[in-house]
Amino acid sequence: QRRPITVGKTQRQRRFKPGVAALREIRKIQQSTRFCLQKTPFQRLVREVTQNTKHAEHEGGLRIQASALEALQAASEDLLTSVFEMSNLAAIHAKRVTIQQKDMVLVKNILTIGDHLGTA
């Protein structure tokens, strides 16, 4: 969003340096408390995954409380955010700015190794 500035009798759009608007948008999203994923598609995904369980076959399907769906969405978004943060650190360590698939694979491998170490 650009603000017009007045120069003499004409108005022109203010230009920001590259990346400034993106950083402003990132800060705005980080300060908000709302979910990043839309509620309805997330609920649809949860219902699709849970309909394949043995509990879903009894009495017309599995029923999920709205508060449980909200808690599941909050936990899912927290996990996704953590994975992206760690992937970003892996990309920075590799002297890159862009996250690549190999960064996410590395994070997944590190997390699974951590799971195995915790159970030993």
TrEMBL record:
Keywords: Chromosome, DNA-binding, Nucleosome core. One of its GO terms (molecular function) is structural constituent of chromatin. It is found in: Chromosome. Pfam families: Histone (PF00125). Residues 19-107 form the Core Histone H2A/H2B/H3 domain. InterPro entries: H2A/H2B/H3, Histone-fold, Histone_H3/CENP-A. GO terms for cellular component: nucleosome. The keyword DNA-binding applies. Its main location: nucleus. CDD domains: HFD_H3 (cd22911). PANTHER family: HISTONE H3-LIKE CENTROMERIC PROTEIN A, HISTONE H3.2. Belongs to the histone H3 family. This is Histone-fold-containing protein. It comes from Colletotrichum phormii.
